[in-house]
Amino acid sequence: MRMLGRQLATARRAAGLSQSGLSAALNINEETIASIEQGRRTLKPDIGEILDDFLGTKGTLAAGVANLPEVDQFPLWAEEYMDQERVAIALSWYDALVVPGLLQNEAYARAVLLNRVPAYDEERLETALRLRLNRQEILRRKCPPTLSFVVWEPALRLSIGSPDVRREQLVFLREMAELPCVSLQILPLESPFHAGVDGPFTLLETPDHQHVAYTESQRGSQWVSDPEEVSILARKYAMLRTQALTTQDSMGLLDRLLGEQ
How many CA atoms lie within 13 A of 64 on its CB side? Predict the structure, then answer.
């Protein structure tokens, strides 16, 4: 991936183009080009062919993609999602299992990561924890994205970590919910309707107003860009928001949960 990235950067410079110039010429997100050149994102076959045609590299990039080792042949969906999350202008997140990662404090995030099977070794645990917490930088951007969260109540009642860890997480969650850019709604346990029974997912709007989605399961993650599939998830999220408590009532439920701690 790094070698392909260097080849792309070399071909781009030989053509007298900046990353922004190549982005504008081919209508490809500039952050995508930067990530590919740095070896952080897989060069996809269709993009490789487009770049070959435009830069006159005679199939070199497409051939490189086709001959990547098997471990690299599959798009790194999680990395692609995090790249887009950093620059997103809007994000809608439904979670049913744990508090959404962007709203986790350090102690709770550590408790969640300690539940991984197979377990992380100490070094990988600290790396995963740092990466998760660093993602919260988007909340402190000068112009933060518009963030909407719907969380199923059982995620808030799950006994992860010590009682003190759980209480501190609820307090932290309440503080995050008061940020101007954040909307938090809780889907109560007693609700007879639940549009999210198929599992958690995230919807994201990019700076160039593309709408994409990201889902996770036990055996991997999936980056969803097909407009029809994204539309289905967007309709599910819209329904979840009508089924969940209002933001004000959700704050009240958080206060009651804190009182039970």
Answer: 23
